[in-house]
Amino acid sequence: MSDKKHSNYYISMKPKLLKDFDKMSKLVREVGKAYFDDATLDSVIDDINEGFENLIPQIPYIGGRKNRLASILPRSAMSLALYRVLKARGVPVKEIGKLNYEIVEHYSKHVPRLLKPFMSRLRFSRIIKRVLKKMAERSQKREYPEDWVFLYVEGDGEHFNLGIDYTECAICKFFHQQGADEFTKYMCLTDFATSREKGM
Q1: C-alpha distances in angstroms, 40 versus 43, 47, 86, 96, 173?
Q2: 8 Å CB contact between 115 and 143
Q3: What is the pLDDT along the chain (200 residues), one digit of tens a residue?
Q4: 28: nearest Cα among 81, 70, 93, 73
């Protein structure tokens, strides 16, 4: 995959990604009030916005719209920008991880309560299982080196519905390229927040 195509894909999405960041920044403000005064919070959000905008051309290209997991990387870039801004201000990485978790948790709770049971059932439906199997098979081809690679694990009908065994993680690769390995484990923790809110 050429760097030019990689960059152009996310640059073409820049207006939408910045709009998505605007929504996320409201959560940063909501959660951040417990950590910063208003003036500091304004400055932090401005810096995160600038940092995220600079990261957009650097987000790894892993197939664009053809890849159902691709939308995760821009959101991860927002968290990466948060990490960089707060680390530069002397905030310990553990505290940044806690703040990031709370932001993702708040974001996940915006799913309408009435939809949660439906989403949970859909997640384990035959249709989704077929989709996941195809995604797993595609990932094994390693068409995009910076993509996730995983195996589909059939549920045993007693202890679990289905499993996904990730052997390579796009976020780990992306954060490593960006020199943010120490923040990766805190990003991984947010899976618990999103899964819980989806009834998983």
Answers
A1: 5, 11, 11, 15, 31
A2: no
A3: 445 556 588 899 999 999 999 988 999 999 999 999 999 999 999 999 999 999 999 999 999 989 999 999 999 999 999 999 999 999 999 999 999 999 998 887 765 565 555 556 666 678 888 999 999 999 999 999 999 999 999 888 788 888 899 999 999 999 999 999 999 999 999 988 887 766 66
A4: 81
What residues does each domain of the chain span? 3-114+172-197
Q: Give the number of other CB atoms < 10 A from CB of residue 164.
A: 12
Contacts of 20 (CB under 8 A, 6+ apart): 74, 75, 78
Q: Is the pTM of this model over 0.85?
A: yes
Q: What is the three-class DSSP state of 84? A: helix
- Residue closest to 95 by CA, chosen among 46, 178, 177, 103: 103
**Distance, CA of 105 to chain centre:** 12
- The packing angle between helices 181-197 and 170-177, to 10°, is 150
